[in-house]
Amino acid sequence: MAKENFVEQIADIEADFPRWYTDVVVKTGLVDYGPVKGTMVIRPYGYAIWENIQSQLDKRFKATGHRNAYFPLLIPMSFFTKEAEHVEGFAPEVAVVTHAGGEELAEPLAIRPTSETIFGSMYSKWIQSYRDLPVLINQWANVMRWEKTTRPFLRTSEFLWQEGHTAHSSEEEALDETMKMLGVYKEFAENCLAIPVICGRKTEKEKFAGAVATFGMEAMMKDGKSLQAGTTHYLGQNFAKAFDIKYLDKDGVQKYVYTSSWGVSTRLIGALIMAHGDSRGLVLPPVVAPVQVVIIPIAAKKGGVLEACADLKQKLESAGVRVTLDDGDNSPGWKFNEWEMKGVPLRIELGPRDIENGKAMIFRRDSLEKSEYALDGIADTVTNLLSAVQKDMLESARKRRDGRIVYADDLNGILQGVEGGNFVKAGWCGLRGCEDKIKTETAATARVFAEGETSCKCAVCGKKAEHTVIFARAY
Amino acid sequence: MAKENFVEQIADIEADFPRWYTDVVVKTGLVDYGPVKGTMVIRPYGYAIWENIQSQLDKRFKATGHRNAYFPLLIPMSFFTKEAEHVEGFAPEVAVVTHAGGEELAEPLAIRPTSETIFGSMYSKWIQSYRDLPVLINQWANVMRWEKTTRPFLRTSEFLWQEGHTAHSSEEEALDETMKMLGVYKEFAENCLAIPVICGRKTEKEKFAGAVATFGMEAMMKDGKSLQAGTTHYLGQNFAKAFDIKYLDKDGVQKYVYTSSWGVSTRLIGALIMAHGDSRGLVLPPVVAPVQVVIIPIAAKKGGVLEACADLKQKLESAGVRVTLDDGDNSPGWKFNEWEMKGVPLRIELGPRDIENGKAMIFRRDSLEKSEYALDGIADTVTNLLSAVQKDMLESARKRRDGRIVYADDLNGILQGVEGGNFVKAGWCGLRGCEDKIKTETAATARVFAEGETSCKCAVCGKKAEHTVIFARAY
User: Fold this and answer.
1) How confident is residue A5, by pLDDT bands cut at 50, 70 and 90?
2) Using alpha carbons only, what angle is made at residue B126 by residues B123 and B131, rounded to the nearest 5 degrees?
3) Torsion on CA atoms B119, B125, B127, B128, rounded to nearest 10
């Protein structure tokens, strides 16, 4: 790799946000384009973020009583036709296996775009009695949705995700699960990704194909657009009826179960990049950063410097910090740029004078502040700084977002709001025609209902508003 | 689930080992058959074993300098034709996507049966200079090989695995990697799965399609057959040349890299079952057992029993033990049978009299021994017992296997050896004809070369032996 100033290779974040994004994801080694159009290779630096996301979510799923399993990739095409809305929503995006083992298959097989149907077919076999309920299963898997326009992490034909699928004996319990997992996602997004999210119900138009109700969490990116960061679905008895998932209740009556499903994906990595990144590149929150601290030796050839750096690294590792010592040949300035671009939360600079004084310089990637700290007790100092970075990143993202939520009374207000890079709250009568008109005129879509808020009139038709809705342009 | 005696539902292990196997995998809730022929659903109890296997292997891969990544599922069919042996080996088993997004694809895409080709295509882009080497990447993924005859875990059209793919500047380094990872697998198999393995090189006939040399580890199952539990491949420059993976060396010359690949899969769960299981069902080694200890209350309705059990559970959890308290309605005897079938290493029985005496009965699944232990210091007792079970299971499997390795001088000796449920060591001249003849006449295949041993003559043709080979019937 040539010794250039990386920073200059990234497009200006203010002038060209989309270009800045693709520059950052590729040049920091998060991802590369796969040989098949619309596919991505998640490189080690990007995959390490995903591993941290997985481990944080997985322990939350287990703490709420879920267990992991693995269901087949290939689903008979006929399964999709069993739920009318579901097939309409997913059939156009499906990748189809028609040949295998040198022969044409009797029935074409879909590569799962989502797994409600195959979970449904197995649940109908496993669930017989009220004693078998609830069933609370999650799977970590790859899924495939053939998309025309793709962008790494945000929209690719194949992506990685988790999908929870649960079955319950009552509507209330299934709805509780749907809301509980939305809460788990929100707490995770805020405390691990440092991304504040707005959660709420989606409109009929925006809901999952086959759901009774979909709830989403929406995150504001630095360009003011919204990214749907996760969804939970209350499926009612739609899939239970399509797949005949029945149980014998205590009262001796056969009843259909109520189901839910919920998922987040590698899209979250895109959210991290666009919620926190700046002109120098990535800014990663410590909880999910693959490298939390990079140590850069100054005047590395002077006696004792590398030894002191190695000693420091050892101390931080013992304290459970993910730390890298960059003892490569490049200049300190070059290393500063590279690790800043890679978004490492803290940089520690250690040179002969620092060692003599028993001090080290620590640079915070989020605030760009640099201060001197005593080497004595440095592990505690670093641990505390990492917590502070995590907390401050959430607060600063929240402040940024809250300053960009505006209200509008009419179509023109919505247009001006979203053109100014805002989320816009406006009244909506509940009719599809008005929702469609907002999209046509402003390129904004209904993200979620603003829970607990009421508007008096619909911004389009002026009739009585049924909901206050958050409108935004979205990824 | 009906209150029957589970044990009677399992076929007799002595009389019908294959039937015993399929009974055990299904009835213990490890796995179920998927709707598409040859596919399996890995249920939570089975998947929890896989998660334990993953976490043990993953830390070993990382400790040896490897990083995880994720490469696309779909590979252009043309990639396979670039390496002549590789396409011959894998093309017949490939599942092919011909349509996606409602259109026929310009080029059909293979669902990866293994990923040397797609790693190769990316490595040729990423590797430019000697400074970029070595590249040490692993991925956890699903793969697909269309098989005619399938059996859960052992051979299914889709399975889960990890595949390491590495690139090096010298033959020596790539070969070192190939042997190092074989060593990692062996240490893992013995210390985590409690399965003794024999490692060695494979014959040309049995090697991976596209490799220069394949090394395998072979484990003996309870019926005396061998199961290939993992392989590592030295690929030489075969894939480097097929995918043009070149680097500029220090001397200014463009050179091809040397590559290796290595993998283990959900097959290991099949190995666990058949290496340790007995007439009562599964016997799981503590390191990978989803539940290490089950607590069964005796006379649960008596005052204080459930409280004491819950207290015990809490103590064991604090000591890092994976423990379940079965406070369900079934009788203790029924619970004993169920948890024995599920292979839980230790069962603790706790009733009013035990509590009064400050003692508990502990039953060891591996040795079927039951002894009384003081409740005082029980967490240490349990931790020590779990270590003892782990160690004893390996020793007992080793003793069993070592007693079933025999030598043969001729074809008839091989036949008698494998019919008696043994591994047979015999001389082989190195010619394919003799290897084929052994397979035809005895249904045994060459598993691995018995490293360091020499035989004087080939068991088939009587000419000078090149290798001593371990022959066995195999899964």
Assistant:
1) very low
2) 110
3) 160
Res. A330: pLDDT tops 90: yes
In terms of residues, how long is chain B? 475
Q: Please, what is the end-to-end C-alpha distance for chain A in angstroms? A: 32
Instruction: Tell me the pLDDT tens digit for each residue of B375-403.
Output: 999 999 999 999 999 999 999 999 999 99
Q: Which residue has the tokens 């490897």?
A: B66
| Rounded Cα–Cα distance for residues B77 and B134 (Å) | 28
A125 neighbourhood in chain B, CB within 8 Å: 32
Distance of CA B409 to the CA centre of its chain: 31
Confidence at B8, pLDDT banded by 50, 70, 90? low
Residue numbers in B near A96 (CB within 8 A): 97-100
Residue A84, pLDDT score: 87
Which backbone phi and psi does A381 adopt, to 5 degrees?
Answer: -55, -45
B316 vs B309: CA distance, rounded Å: 11
Task: Determine the Cα–Cα distance for residues A393 and A375; give it in Å rounded to an integer.
Answer: 25
| Length of chain A counted residue by residue | 475
Residues A301 and A259: their CA atoms lie apart, in Å, by 64
The answer to ipTM > 0.90 is yes
Half-sphere exposure for A80 (CA within 13 Å, toward CB): 24
- Which residues 6+ apart lie within 8 Å of A231 measured at CB? A202, A208, A214, A215, A216, A217, A262, A263
Contact A74 B158 (CB under 8 A): yes
Q: Alpha-carbon distance A323 to A320, whole Å?
A: 9
The CA distance from A43 to A29, in Å, is 6
Q: Which of A72, A92, A132 sits opposite B34 (nearest CB)?
A: A72
Is B101 close to A69, i.e. CB distance below 8 A? no
* C-alpha span between A454 and B288 (Å, rounded): 54
Q: How far apart are CA B224 and CA B211, in angstroms?
A: 29
The two most distant CA atoms of chain B are separated, in Å, by 82
Residue A341: CB partners within 8 Å, gap ≥ 6?
Answer: A6, A7, A10, A24, A27, A28, A280, A281, A282
Q: Using one digit for the tens of pLDDT, what is the confidence trace for A213-247?
A: 999 999 999 999 999 999 999 999 999 999 999 99
The pair of structure tokens assigned to B191 is: 């210390």
Q: Which run of H or of E encompasses B372?
A: strand B370-374
pTM of the model: 0.96
Residue B34 sits at the chain A interface (C-beta within 8 Å): yes
Contacts of A95 in chain B (CB under 8 A): 74, 97, 99-101, 109
Question: Does B29 contact chain A (CB < 8 Å)?
Answer: no
How far is it, in rounded angstroms, from Cα A328 to Cα B329? 64
- Strands of the sheet containing B103-111, edge to edge, are A74-76, A103-111, A95-100, B95-100, B103-111, B74-76
Does A36 contact B67 at a Cβ distance shorter than 8 Å?
Answer: no
Average pLDDT, chain A: 96
Closest alpha carbon within chain A to B97: A97
Tokens of B454: 């020499």
B68–A44 C-beta distance less than 8 A: yes
Helix (H, G, I), strand (E, B) or coil at B238: helix
**Residues B270, B273, B277, CA angle at the centre, nearest 5°?**
160
Contact B188, B182 (CB under 8 A): no
- Across residues B145-158, what is the average pLDDT? 95
Report CB contact under 8 Å: A34, B109. Answer: no
8 Å CB contact of A44 and B148 = no
Coil vs helix vs strand at A429: coil
CB atoms under 10 Å from CB of B318, counted, come to 9
What CA dihedral angle connects B70, B72, B75 and B81, to 10 degrees?
-20
